[in-house]
Every structure is written in C-alpha cells, then in structure tokens.
Amino acid sequence: MLPTTRLKNLYAGPLPPMALTDYEAMSKFLNQAAQRCKVSGRNFDLFLDWIIHALSMSLTSDSASRIFLPKTKTGPFVLDDLIPISGLPPAGEKRVKLSECGLIAPVWNNGSLEAALESLYDSGFAGLDVEQPFGGAYFPELRLAIIDSPADVDIPNVLRVWSRGSVVLPVYLLKDLEPLLNTDGETWYIQHEGLEREEIVLEPRMAALYNCGLRRYGGRS
Questions:
Q1: C-alpha atoms less than 13 angstroms from C-alpha of 142 in its C-beta half-sphere
Q2: 3-state secondary structure at position 184
Q3: DSSP label at 129?
Q4: Of the candidates 220, 210, 215, 187, which has an alpha carbon nearest to the alpha carbon of residue 59?
Q5: How many Å from the N-terminal Cα to the C-terminal Cα in the chain?
Q6: Handedness of CA 33, 190, 173, 135 (dihedral sign)
Q7: Which of 20, 33, 45, 180 lies at 20 to 30 Å from 55 by C-alpha?
Q8: CA 25 from centroid of its chain's CA atoms
Q9: Predicted confidence band at 165 (pLDDT cuts at 50, 70, 90)?
C-alpha cells in the first residue's frame, strides 16, 4: 500500500497512472451515460464500446511499461491475480493475431526483453507465428489476450508493440463465464463444480472491463 502522501502525489501528477482507476468512478460514468441514453434515445453500446477499448488500451500499455518498475517491488505475473479463471474450462484454443488485439503479457526481466528486441531488429521486424501454446486466456469479444507463462512473454510483448505475429491461447467466451464468474469491483465470486470461492480484486480495470463486456456481449442489461 502506498503512503497517503505518495498517493496524493500520483493523483496530482500531470498524467495519473491508470492503475489508480476507481471502480466506483467507472460505474458513475456508466450510470450517467445510461441516463443520457434514456433521454436522447442513443444506443448505450456506444459508451460500453468506448470504455472497453479505453481499459484494454490502458492495460496493454501498462503491460509493456511494467519493465520500468523496480524489480524489488514486482514479480512474475500470474493470470489469476488479474482474473481468476485458471480453474474454469476454456472453449478451446485459437491462434490470435497480435495486431488485432490488446495484449497483457507483463515483461519483468531486462535482459530477456533486450534480447527479444534485438531478435526482432535482426529479423528486419518480421512477424513471427509462435508455435508453442501459452498459458493465459483470449477473450474474443473484448479482443484481449493475456499471457501468464513464465517463459518468453518478452517475445509476444515485443511483437505486439510493433503489431507483428501471432500466438496460440486458450479461448474464454463471456457467455460461458457469466454463470461462473462475477464481480462487484472489490471481490471476484467464482462458482465451479458445486464449489464457491471469493478472491480480492487486485486490478479494478480488469473487473470493470469484465463487467462492461458482460453488459455488452453477455446477458446483462
């Protein structure tokens, strides 16, 4: 937890980090938008599409820039810390073009990232269809890919920054997840095989993105 004075400095900066995203503030924006749509007759999907795109871009950007954080304060990325679905069944696998999606594959090791950048440079910035499947998830409705494999996340991340190549990931459909996974912005609620469990939301942007995706593409109104 950051000290209060440090948080104040972050909020007062010229460009506060999106990691400070507040779930309630997002909900207020959507509630106001819904009221505007009732008055104007416009399609509420306009607002959902915008916030889904904005949150996806923010998470993708932070994924690449994570390399600049102190290594003593960060560690390897785990999918369930972002969205707890590792025990839930995927709908299959898919080869995903990195030029057509957002990518969360947080880089952490300076040397590995530098080697990946050099490899792409030496190839003439050629695309690479990575053959081995990665651990993680792809949400087709959100056009969002997540990689949590501890090996070689640097190569997909570098490819995504330059809109090159593709990777193979497990596919999760929002309509399949909706009965199994819910969140109120503070807690994830998971129901699977007759068991229920709760996990703390560590990244409010992901909770907001998931709920907006359910409202846009699932059965929620």
A1: 32
A2: coil
A3: B
A4: 210
A5: 35
A6: positive
A7: 180
A8: 19
A9: very high
